[in-house]
């Protein structure tokens, strides 16, 4: 009788342990990101198919929001087919409303690590001008997210009756940033340091300006330093004499210190 009771307790304990392991196990963020990268062409094609099922209406000033919702719904449908380890609990699309309460447009949560998926939409009749993140924002997002991808929706709004999805692109975010012609770094908007996207021709060809993420990060640093110099040169004369003198004294103090051997 004791043996039967012990076997029963052992069976229950094993079932509880297996349940805890199953619930506690989380997909590996690095493995997921690597596979997302490898499947980027496939995912882009499947997203294109999904978004071409329905045309939209309205102004280009608000259509991005509708495409954002459509992309999120498509990702939640497509990703589990390629990633059996991902379930609805791994997806975070925030709370839909006038403004969505979330850090990322769409996030894939893998335990304590989060993969960011930004969603952008732009007309196909001209090269995209969407913001790609500022220099100040870049290091913060690197701390928040283990990897960053972007979905781009290129749409055709030449018809008065409907807005049609032309093509969807999916890739690591850094591969979409264009190179500057002023400095050996990323292109940016001078007023706020917001990085700019590459032209549609490079979207279509799959070309990128950067050999690797490390190459891109170095390009960001070079552009940031160049912009800082530009801002100082342009704004120095706008400072009061007292502020200019204070800046001079601060710089003199810094550079008058002996250089350590």
Structure, explained:
- There is one protein chain.
- The protein has 261 residues and is of the alpha+beta class.
- It has one domain: 3-Layer(aba) Sandwich (ECO RV Endonuclease, Chain A).
- Helix content is 46%, strand content 16%.
- It has 8 helices and 7 strands, in the order H-H-H-H-E-E-E-H-E-E-E-E-H-H-H.
- The strands form 2 sheets. Strands 1-2-3-4-5 form a 5-stranded mixed beta sheet. A two-stranded antiparallel sheet has the order 6-7.
- Helix 3 packs across helix 4.
- The protein is globular, with a radius of gyration of 25 Å.
Based on secondary structure, the structural category is alpha+beta
The CATH class, by name, is Alpha Beta
Overall average pLDDT: 87
The major pleated sheet works out as: 5 strands, mixed
Oligomer: single chain
Give the N-to-C terminal Cα separation: 82 Å
Tally of separate domains: 1
Helix content: 40-55%
The H-and-E topology, N to C, reads as HHHHEEEHEEEEHHH
Q: How many β-strands, per DSSP?
A: 7
Number of helices: 8
Radius of gyration: 25 Å
CATH architecture: 3-Layer(aba) Sandwich
Report the principal-axis shape. Answer: globular
Keywords:
261 residues; alpha+beta; ECO RV Endonuclease, Chain A; two-stranded antiparallel sheet
In short:
By secondary structure, the protein is α+β, with helices and mostly antiparallel strands. The protein has helices spanning 2-24, 29-38, 40-51, 60-82, 137-144, 200-205, 213-235, 241-256, and strands at 91-92, 106-110, 113-123, 147-156, 164-172, 188-189, 194-195.
């Amino acid at each position: 009788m004791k043996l039967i009771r012990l076997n029963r307790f052992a069976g229950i304990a094993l079932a509880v342990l297996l349940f805890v392991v199953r619930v506690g196990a989380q997909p590996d963020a690095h493995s997921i990101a690597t596979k997302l990268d490898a499947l980027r062409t496939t995912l882009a094609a499947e997203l294109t198919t999904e978004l071409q099922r329905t045309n939209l209406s309205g102004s280009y000033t608000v259509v991005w929001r509708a495409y954002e919702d459509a992309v999120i719904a498509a990702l939640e449908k497509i990703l589990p087919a390629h990633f059996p380890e991902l379930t609805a609990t791994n997806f975070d699309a925030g709370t839909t409303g006038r403004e969505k309460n979330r850090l990322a447009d769409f996030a894939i949560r893998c335990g304590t690590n989060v993969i960011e998926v930004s969603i952008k939409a732009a007309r196909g009749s001209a090269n995209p001008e969407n913001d790609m993140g500022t220099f100040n924002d870049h290091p913060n997002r690197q701390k928040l997210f283990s990897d960053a991808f972007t979905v781009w929706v290129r749409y055709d709004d030449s018809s008065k009756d409907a807005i049609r999805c032309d093509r969807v692109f999916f890739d690591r975010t850094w591969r979409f940033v264009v190179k500057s012609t002023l400095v050996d770094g990323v292109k940016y908007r001078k007023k706020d340091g917001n990085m700019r996207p590459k032209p549609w021709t490079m979207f279509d060809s799959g070309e990128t300006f950067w050999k690797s993420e490390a190459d891109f990060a170095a390009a960001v640093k070079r552009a940031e330093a160049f912009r800082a110099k530009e801002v100082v040169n342009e704004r120095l004369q706008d400072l009061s004499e007292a502020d200019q003198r204070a800046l001079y004294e601060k710089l003199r103090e810094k550079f008058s210190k002996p250089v350590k051997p």
